[in-house]
């Protein structure tokens, strides 16, 4: 006859303890990793630049130039998303999901400043793990194209 045992054997208790310890270790590693990911968000590669504009130049024309520049740049790099916000009354143009820090690729925000005599361009550009995609070169290329378009009028 088999003897009925109430309770776990020493071997079963040993494996439960090891399993619980492994689960605890895995959870701790995930928590530490999550902390480092949120700290990385503050290291988002960014650049800013300003362009002088004639005071009588409309927001619509500036935005058309910026959209054309983004479209041109997207032909050579898939890191440039399309324009997602165009608010001519507020003087704001954005591409991609600009406010988010957890997106890859370039994201631009263009704002009319100085009583309409200039624009300010902000650019975020990160790859996986916040690797810099070359934001300084990208903003130089973008502002050069926008400036050339504005001066062509």
What key phrases describe this protein's structure?
single chain; 153 residues; five-stranded antiparallel β-sheet; 44% helix; elongated
Explain what the structure shows.
This protein is of the alpha+beta class and 153 residues long. The protein has three helices and five strands. Strands 1-5-4-3-2 form a five-stranded antiparallel sheet, covered by helices on one side. Strand 2 and strand 3 (92-95) form a beta hairpin. The longest helix is centred in the N-terminal third of the chain and has 32 residues, at 10-41. The radius of gyration is 26 Å and the shape is elongated. The model is unreliable at 29-41 (pLDDT under 50).
Compact description:
The chain is an alpha+beta fold and 153 residues long. It has helices at 10-41, 59-76, 135-151; strands spanning 46-52, 83-87, 92-95, 105-113, 118-126.
């Amino acid at each position: 006859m088999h003897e009925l045992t109430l309770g776990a054997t020493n071997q079963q208790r040993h494996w439960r303890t090891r399993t619980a310890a492994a689960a605890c270790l895995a959870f701790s590693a995930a928590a530490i990793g999550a902390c480092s990911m949120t700290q990385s968000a503050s290291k988002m590669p960014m650049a800013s630049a300003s362009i002088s504009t004639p005071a009588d130049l409309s927001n619509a024309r500036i935005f058309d130039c910026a959209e054309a520049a983004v479209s041109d740049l997207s032909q050579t790099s898939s890191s440039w998303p399309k324009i997602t916000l165009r608010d001519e009354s507020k003087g704001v143009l954005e591409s991609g999901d600009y406010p988010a820090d957890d997106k890859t690729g370039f994201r631009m925000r263009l704002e009319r400043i100085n009583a309409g005599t200039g624009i300010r361009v902000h650019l975020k550009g990160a790859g996986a793990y916040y690797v810099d995609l070359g934001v300084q070169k990208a903003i130089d290329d973008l502002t050069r194209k926008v400036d050339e378009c504005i001066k062509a009028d």
